[in-house]
Amino acid sequence: MEAILAIIRNNLRKPAIAIALGVVVGLIIGLVFGWVVWPVEYTDGTPEILRTDLQKDYLRMTIDSYNRTGDVDTAMARWDILGAAADAIFISLQSDPGYLDPAEIQEFGQLVQSVKGAPIQATPPAESGSMTGLSQIVFYASIAVVAILLGVGAMYLFRLFRRGSGTVTPVMQAAELSRSVERTDYRTHGLEPPITQSMTTYVFGYDLYDESFSIDTQGGKYLGEYGVGICEKIGVGEPKKVTALEVWLFEENDIKTATKVLMSEHAYNDPGIRARLEPKGDLILLKRGEEILLETANLQLLATVVDLEYGMGSMPANSYFQRVTLEFAIWPRVKN
Predict the structure, then answer these.
(1) Where are the domains of the chain?
(2) 3-state secondary structure at position 59
(3) Is the pTM of this model over 0.90?
């Protein structure tokens, strides 16, 4: 499972994939919120936008009120509020009078024609709850868009997992190596358990190696972050021949980020490489078993080199890493 997550994390660092996935997820979330979670709600609307069954109820009450009061002006004002749907609703009411006397409906219709000077003519409205042509188009188009997006996403994930299951990639190797290493029990060394502890591995070919971890208290309070990534490579071509890694520690309450550069033996002894990397932080010769300490105002990070292997080839001896496994542990900084 960790290998699969590592593959996904590695692919998400590619801008094109991240943007495409963001668009797909954004559209799906937007449709769900627009149609299900927060559908359109009308307030202070007129009867013209009500469902057909509610428009019928409104017109029945209008006719009933007119029969009781004889107020022509109010009756016509209420008729006008129905807008373009008024004629169609009236015609449908003739076959569905409800609690009204059909004669009262006919009398009201004659009043409307007398006042408006035009006959009532319209196609009976669609049944209550049915959608208009435009609504149907929008509804089915939305379903089609969601289906297409889900299909594209499923195909991508299928290809990703199939490729991952058939080929052991550097990302998978790194995840498996980190998982297989036993973590240090610092209590046996007389130390308190760290706030957080993690293992990370770089292997040759993991060209996008850039790991970061959050520092949070047990109560969920965010304290900062730490991580490691590629700092320097030598030679040309791919895969990258990494000759230095950069370890960093960031604290939320400290304006300065602590950084140290872990160098291969060749890079450490090369004046040109040293000159380029010195501005990034303290230069450390990477050795198996080496412990590197980084400190900020209130935190300290102990990075232990669990495993180290150099690559073999046409490059100078001990010039680039084949494999590096680091164990990180974070404690509160003890101030004197």
Answers:
(1) 2-40+132-167, 52-116, 174-332
(2) helix
(3) no
